[in-house]
Design brief:
This protein is of the alpha/beta class. It contains four helices and five strands. It has one domain: Trna Endonuclease, Chain: A, domain 1 (3-Layer(aba) Sandwich), CATH 3.40.1350.10. About 4% of the residues have low confidence.
Amino acid sequence: MADERGSPRGRKKVADLGEKLRTAQGPESIEHEFWKAKIGDYFSSKGFKVSFEERVGEAATVDILASNANTSLAVEVETGKSDALRNIEKALSAGLTVLTVATSSEIEKKIKDQLSRQPQLDHGKVRIVSAQSCTWD
């Protein structure tokens, strides 16, 4: 069940999805916590070892680290409130492939636009999608 923290917009999104959510802990929004849990469950069901807020550098963490025998994938959930490019850069610097999951198509478009202006980044190791465009079951 969702708690009373988070923005009215975030609480509405969770309710619109018909999901119950454990109480969010820390500074992250309910919407951010919801998608981290949903995506983590998805990768776990596909046989990945999943860890949350995993340290990947001296002072860097990723929202989700999904690993199996073949790959390690950093997953960053973007609600539009953080520096998405910085999150992509820190994961790439750690040698990871990056999946950025934007919580709306508007945020997805914004991040893709920002990334297109960063030719120095390895675009082949980055995928940006909107959460609603994927099946997380």
